[in-house]
Design goal:
The model has no long low-confidence stretch (mean pLDDT 84). It is built from 4 helices and no strands. α2 runs antiparallel to α3 and α2 packs parallel to α4. It is an all-alpha fold.
Length: 155
């Protein structure tokens, strides 16, 4: 029986691309559906007298949605969450109101959460892509380069 020699070859050269964010309309659909579901569940469980809890939960939802979204989706995500918070988490139900400082603060919290989630995701993807860049990129293809010649023990 003849022994075959395994030849080690690199599968790819260079950095792999950073994952693409989810399309903005899909993120907004997730924000609307998720916020509606969370508001309904929290209204049934704790009632409508705890808007701070609903704000915290919707901020967490905005941050999680931000992990897979573009920065341009953050304002819409925050606005959709605020609409459901304002319309269905505080009395009177189904009526949009504007209470100056309170609603400005709520919108700022939701927007900040969405931006922080998106920023963390972009930073994490950029760091991962940077770590994937081979250390000898400059020496590839130059004479004397032993990159791709085999496993480290065979050099």
């Amino acid at each position: 029986m003849k022994r075959q020699r395994i030849e080690w070859m690199p599968i790819s050269v260079g950095a792999r691309p950073v994952p693409q964010p989810v399309a903005t309309p899909l993120v907004w659909a997730g924000a609307f559906g998720g916020a509606l579901l969370l508001v309904l569940v929290l209204n049934a469980v704790v009632g409508t007298d705890r808007p701070g809890l609903v704000l915290a939960v919707l901020s967490l939802l905005a941050a999680v949605l931000g992990l897979c979204a573009r920065f341009t989706a953050a304002p819409g995500t925050a606005a959709l969450c605020w609409l459901l918070l304002n319309g269905f988490a505080i009395p009177p139900m189904g009526v949009l109101t504007w209470a100056g400082q309170r609603d400005t603060f709520w919108l700022a919290c939701l927007l900040t959460a969405a931006l922080v989630g998106t920023g963390c995701a972009r930073l994490n993807h950029a760091r991962a892509a940077y770590r994937r860049i081979p250390t000898g990129v400059a020496s590839q293809g130059t004479p004397g380069s032993d990159r791709g010649a085999g496993p480290p023990g065979d050099r």
